[in-house]
User: What shape does this take?
Amino acid sequence: MSDPFQPSNLLPDIIEIAREAGEIVMRHFAAPIHSTLKSSRIDIVTAADTETEAFIIHRLTAKFPSHHIVGEEGGGQGAPAADAPYHWYVDPIDGTVNFANKLPYFSISIALATPDRLPLLGVVYDPTRGEFFTAVKGQGARLDGQPIAVTKTEELIDSVVASGFPYDKQSNPDNNLKEWNAFVPRIRGERRLGSAALGMSYVAAGRLDGFWEKNLKPYDAMAGMLIAREAGGRVTDYAGNDFPQRQDRGRYVASNGRIHAAMLAVLQSV
Assistant: This one.
């Protein structure tokens, strides 16, 4: 018997969950924001993160009790991972440092995937701009319901790319500084925006030509990865692998496809 579960049918409900979650985030954004430390002085969490994730997980578990949910703040919830036919990946605020500093560049990221991490549906919502980046596997990517596509930029020197830095950048020499410096003379512009989910979505929408970052977790990247691919882009690890099964090591490169080999060459050169 074929599986009647169709991710495309879920998209309106997930958009609505993200929209309501965005209302929680923006209520906190309008008030004084207090943060607490997680793994370091740089890695922080706010009450908005925990409240928003709890809301999203409550809605998902009520609707999909047999599914497993991986949240940034609460870990694995819902049905046991080994038994669940589908897994959800939730980042309630991707860009918490921006959020805590009142910088209006952060997002809510929700993705549906198979147990071996094949993304099927992705929603990245920027509540400050009211923008929804969405994708369903095999059906293209959209911004607020309108189809989007990656740029046609052919040369790295004509490209604008973005990246980010890991939370342990002060103590870990593998902190992306060498990669960042290697790109500077080879591109038109380099940006550090603070939300991986939006970075990949911006590649999908043609606002960036490329994006790379290391130490990303699945909840950081799953939705954005699908959105970028469905917009005609390419997403791999630093070695050019397309993330088969569970080997990703947290290193993601997203591009319009045309500059992908050149981006990989820069990353591999350092």
